[in-house]
Amino acid sequence: MDAEAIVIGSGFGGAVAALRLGQAGIKTMVLERGRRWTIDDPTTNSTFATFRQIDKRAEWLNDTGLSQTPAYEGTPIDPYVGVMEVVAHGEYKFLVGSGVGGGSHAYGGILIQPPRELWGKVFPSEVSYDEMDSVYFPRVHNEIGSSLIPDDIVESPYYLGLKVLVEQAKKAGFPMVESTSNNMKDGMTKFMMGIDWDIVREEMAGTKVPSTIAAEFWFGQNSGAKQTLDQNYLKRAEETRSVEIRPLHWVQRIAPLPEGGYQVDVDVINEQGDVVESQVLTCRSLFMAAGTLGTTGLLLKAKAKGYLPDISDRIGQELGNDGDTFVVRSNLDATTNPHLGGPGAIVIMNYENPIYPCVMMRAPLPRFETDYPDLNAMGTFIFSMTPHRGSLSYNADSDSIDLNYASDENAKAAAQQLVERMSAANGGDSSPISATITGHQLGGAAMGQVCDTYGRVQGYANLYVVDGALIPGSSTCVNPALTIAAVAERCMEHLIPQDLQLGR
């Protein structure tokens, strides 16, 4: 065997698996299709692309010649192993992180805890919220070093829009409360962020390049303020000396070995996506953490081609997006600096929405400086507790994975209810609700259907799913990064002593 364990992917599930395997002394290989992104100079934009200067570093192997990033389409771009893949399905676009650290480079640092009252509507009863709340959510926060946004940063001009959002929410009847649960009553609260606020202060002082304060988040942050997984979980995994991370290793096929264990067929690529070597790697235990689309796609192909024929027929089902929608409120009676500051930090919770419980967060974008020159607009994400689901399926004719996902009209209606409530109290106009973009895809190899609640793929020993594919389509109307990592922590704490160390 080339390794006792192989982990495919290094995002919020794979990074957790790598660290816990390494700490257990299990020789582990992490295969990541993307490159490492090491910040050598945090005073310049020399590592990552930015919204203000999109280049090849922004997008994963885009061979169209023009950028596909939502709201930034059309910039000339060369194929490269960039930070974010844009997977299109008709008008719908799924955003997928790439690189050592996975989606942590492309997310906004939002590590919000799901509300207790909605947990059981998504997760099987065996996954106890009490245990998640007391053990696994805090464990992730501790490893990443997340914290609440400090008041001095909220009071800065870079977060003026966040301050205005709070004032407007109060006018609309949303009181400040202590937690994201709040007994399913409307309110708003701060929540934990994977941001180093001392580095944000350095950005404000001019000693680090403006990143968080400049609303740069989808393509990585050149200042290093965002606490990406390569800085914590994966760094500590390598320090165990039991974990080897192999970037630019793109897994193409998985299959069982006759004597037990698994074979993983890998294309080693260069930074332009050319295959420079093909490898066959073997392991006793295989952990799937290539993201919802990557993990589910590999399992679907393995089932369709007869490598893993006994995988449940439910593979590919329960694909959800956390009810993601987006709206811009404009012509407000206050300056908001809609082009500055980071997303999230404070959430407006509209749990009493008559259609679906939903939440709202501020979403700044650099382009809003020119789109709204009066600087009196506010971009917002709204996520709803929706049962809407799609699916992934294998297309034998093209030997590829088809994405089947329709617009969620009820999620749009729930978002509209919340927007109208804010507008009634504060005035202004609003754009049509957009429901065509998500970076929050979940499901495909869901627990209770394809896997058990610890990620074991039913029918196959030593094959596990520990990423967003395991989550049954929703993180209960909040961003899923914390949920994915905490569920992975729960899985690994059980699997290592029960499956991997037993009989070693």
Element order: H for helix, E for strand:
EHEEEHHHHEHHEEEEHEEEHEEEHEEEH
What would the CATH topology be? Answer: FAD/NAD(P)-binding domain
Share of helical residues: 10-25%
User: Could you describe the largest sheet, including whether it forms a barrel?
Assistant: 7 strands, mixed
Secondary structure: elements and pairs:
Elements: E1 3-8, H1 14-23, E2 28-31, E3 84-89, E4 92-97, H2 116-119, H3 129-144, H4 151-154, H5 160-171, E5 187-190, H6 197-205, H7 233-239, E6 243-246, E7 249-256, E8 262-269, E9 275-288, H8 291-304, E10 325-330, E11 346-350, E12 358-362, H9 368-371, E13 378-384, E14 391-395, E15 400-404, H10 409-426, E16 429-430, E17 437-438, E18 463-465, H11 481-500
Parallel strand pairs: 1-2, 1-9, 2-6, 4-17, 9-18
Antiparallel strand pairs: 3-4, 5-11, 7-8, 8-9, 10-13, 10-16, 11-12, 12-13, 14-15
Helix pairs in contact: 1-7, 1-11, 3-11
Please describe what this structure looks like:
This protein has 504 residues and is of the alpha/beta class. It has a single domain (9-21, 33-236, 318-497), classed as FAD/NAD(P)-binding domain. It has helices at 14-23, 116-119, 129-144, 151-154, 160-171, 197-205, 233-239, 291-304, 368-371, 409-426, 481-500; strands at 3-8, 28-31, 84-89, 92-97, 187-190, 243-246, 249-256, 262-269, 275-288, 325-330, 346-350, 358-362, 378-384, 391-395, 400-404, 429-430, 437-438, 463-465. Strands 1, 2, 6, 7, 8, 9 and 18 form a seven-stranded mixed β-sheet that branches. A six-stranded antiparallel β-sheet has the order 5-11-12-13-10-16, covered by helices on one side. Helix 1 (14-23) packs parallel to helix 7 (233-239) and helix 1 runs parallel beside helix 11 (481-500). The longest helix has 20 residues, at 481-500. 57% of the residues are buried. The mean pLDDT is 97.
